Amino acid sequence: MKWRVVVHGVAAIVVLSCSSTSENVSASSQPVVTVPPLEGLTQVVVANEHKGGYSRSLFSENKDLDKDGCNTRAEVLERDSLLPVKKSGTRCTVASGKWLSAYDGRTWLLGRDVQIDHLVSLKEVWDSGGWAWSAAQRSDYANDLGNRITLNVATKSENAKKGEKDPSNYLPPLVSYRCAYLANWVAVKVQWKLSMDQSEYGRTKKLLQGCGTTSTTSTSSTTSTSTPRSNTSTTTGGVAPAVEGSTAALLASIVVENEHTSGYVRELFPHWKDLDGDSCDTREEVLIRDSLTKVQVDPFGCEVVAGDWLSPYDGARWSDKSNIDIDHVVALKEAWDSGAWAWTTAQRTLFANDLSDARTLLAVTDSVNQSKSDKDPSNWLPPLASYHCTYISDWVSVKARWKLSMDQSEYGRVKKIVEGCGGSSVATSIPSTVSSVTTSAPSTVKYVSPGAFCTPIGAQGIAESKVSYLCATTSATGAAYADGRARWRKG
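Above: the chain's sequence. Below: its structure in token form.
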């Protein structure tokens, strides 16, 4: 069996290929199917580590295996640079470029400031099976350029902190990257038929469960289409079926139709609300979630005072939140034009404040967000070209998740970009806990009684007056109800 992984934000899909041959750990080309990381984890053998005998020289790293004059370090630096690299010397030494260390979100311009990290360290590989490999197999692993998740550009100090540790002892400081890191760890372990010890396996499993990867259990071919779009109306607050598959498959499930181009006003999407009743509105929640460092928050009104943000659209880093906008990846007007015009206010509120999938809302440079405005990908793409494939995959995921349509020009442009990104292999998944939406009015509506006790906190409801209500423990002004119980109040 051979696995590879494609990472999309906090959602990652492990790709498995099956071979009837041998214990050879070298790469091979086989048909693939997609499964979640937790399902991949079940294929890993749990065994005690092999202690003793390790020497780094046994892995022959930084070789020039393809005889082009550049060793593995130079190849990775050139591959992962956000800008064209500058080289020097006969050994293809990369002097400068622009690298983003995924572990801590830091950006570097000089090759000497970064290291190339083996995601699963050489000693960890030795202890979990590499001790039994041939010298050629160890060299293949140490210089693996066939699967880009094996070798990563990392900040020197962060790579030193990681050392030879597995996930039971180390996780990247950039919290938003941890789920992708764990999925990659599993993928590398399975691809190279490496074992895990009990503590490593238990910790990895527990963390992956926290990433929300247990809800998607089906296995599907990357060439198949995703769950068809249903014509059955459902009410807000229901649970939509999980949607899983490649970006191309999700795109194929989206309805293509003309946009509904009238009637939009931003106020139809109540946004920056405190839907979970924790005193932090959606904007502050995203600032807290996306900060690279621990934010400073004023406890009175939950206002973020300071943090550290990396804008994925342009690679700019900011420490002043006034330079940051919270972007709806699919703009509110775009959502209106492609289906939200038929939603209830409660449904539009859920979309405008969606924190259940990190792809819906992003902290980005304000000027870049303003240049994007309400444009779709036929008219705008992020200035950072290396982010285009991720952006398009996010766009398709949000559209499919909320059952939004595309017009012909949007669909054609997106399809072309997906194909250029390797659409059949860019895998994505959509959480199964999404509140479903409807593109037509429900035949029957259960109205809530304003002021009545309610559950669960954060639930949305509609009164007979057609006004939206929220289940909360505080009034609209933030005052806590005397009895501490949640009540329906205007949301």
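Residues 1-34, 213-244, 423-445 have pLDDT under 50 and may be disordered.
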